[in-house]
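RECORD TYPE: inverse folding
INPUT: structure tokens
STRUCTURE:
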């Protein structure tokens, strides 16, 4: 499907600099631009590419002022990255969708299937499952008994949704995601560890995205809850009875231990670890590899183990690099101090 600069600018409420009839049919990175493609410039690091890119149209922020000749047609918008996301969403929505239930899928008794649902070959849908309108279930996915999946969800291949779990509207579950496996609950006994039955569920509210091979464990009792708008990267562990606040984003390899409550609009880098029974306030930011042993107050911006304020962390990092020289200086000062003591004693 082809779009002109004029059509794109009208959709984004942008300003055209160049040929309003320039036409594009695909998207590319700015450093890999080709004729007939649209790209964007948001990170100043990539500014040099705007003078060499072969892309036909480039989205830029309104504040951008070129310092040389730009061959591409520019569309100035309030936020180039956000505008690109709007266009990609529009492009995705216009791609042909698949409908219907494959005869090779296994559909159990009393399943409720909404309009325009797609169920691919070799998917399994358990008893009394409800699938909302427009939801897509891809091959080799498993949806257990009594589970409910909302409207316009995408369940990619190899996803496992255990019994009784609840998935909201417009959720995306990527391959290998496991929703509702048993929480890690064992009681020590003289003979070993006795399994504690995990009889709760997992609930994902609307507009949640779960990355590949991410696991969200069912509650021991009650609900492990992921609030609306949460975005989880690949390879994340959310333990039993956790609650993740709305619009929180979490990067890969993060692990959150059981019965922890994370606030709204939090951000976590890769490999963050949070101890169980912690309370993380709203709008907390944690840098990569932060280890959190307990509660954090609202608005904290921390990094490290145990986490510390960013400015303090960077000062400590500088000091750490200087430790070898500081050690030499301390040895010299000790030597001089001992010499002075010896002179005074004489």
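DESIGNED SEQUENCE:
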């Amino acid at each position: 499907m082809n779009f002109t600069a004029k059509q794109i600018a009208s959709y984004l409420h942008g300003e055209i600099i160049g040929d309003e009839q320039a036409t594009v049919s695909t998207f590319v990175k700015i450093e890999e631009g080709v004729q007939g493609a649209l790209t964007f410039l948001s990170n100043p690091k990539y500014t040099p590419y705007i003078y060499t890119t072969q892309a036909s149209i480039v989205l830029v922020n309104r504040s951008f002022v070129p310092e040389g000749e730009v061959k591409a047609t520019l569309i100035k918008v309030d936020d180039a990255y956000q505008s690109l996301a709007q266009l990609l969403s529009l492009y995705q929505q216009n791609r042909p969708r698949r409908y219907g239930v494959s005869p090779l899928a296994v559909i159990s008794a009393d399943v409720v299937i909404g309009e325009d649902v797609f169920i691919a070959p070799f998917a399994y849908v358990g008893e009394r499952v409800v699938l909302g309108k427009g939801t897509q279930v891809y091959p080799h996915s498993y949806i257990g008994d009594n589970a409910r999946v909302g409207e316009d969800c995408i369940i990619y291949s190899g996803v496992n949704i255990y019994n009784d779990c609840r998935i909201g509207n417009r959720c995306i579950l990527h391959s290998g995601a496991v929703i509702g496996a048993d929480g890690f609950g064992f009681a020590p006994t003289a003979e070993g560890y006795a399994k504690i039955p995990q009889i709760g569920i997992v609930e994902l509210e609307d507009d949640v995205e779960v990355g590949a091979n991410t696991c969200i464990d069912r509650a021991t009792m009650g609900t492990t809850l992921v609030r609306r708008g949460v975005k989880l990267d690949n390879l994340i562990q959310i333990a039993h009875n956790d609650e993740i606040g709305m619009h929180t984003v979490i990067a890969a390899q993060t692990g959150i231990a059981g019965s922890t409550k994370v606030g709204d609009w939090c951000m976590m880098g890769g490999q963050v670890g949070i101890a169980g029974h912690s309370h993380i306030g709203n709008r907390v930011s944690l840098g990569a590899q932060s280890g959190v042993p307990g509660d954090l107050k609202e608005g904290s911006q921390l990094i490290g183990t145990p986490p510390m304020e960013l400015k303090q962390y960077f000062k400590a990092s500088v000091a750490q690099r200087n430790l070898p020289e500081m050690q030499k200086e301390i040895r010299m000062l000790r030597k001089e101090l001992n010499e002075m003591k010896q002179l005074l004693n004489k």
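NOTES: The radius of gyration is 27 Å.
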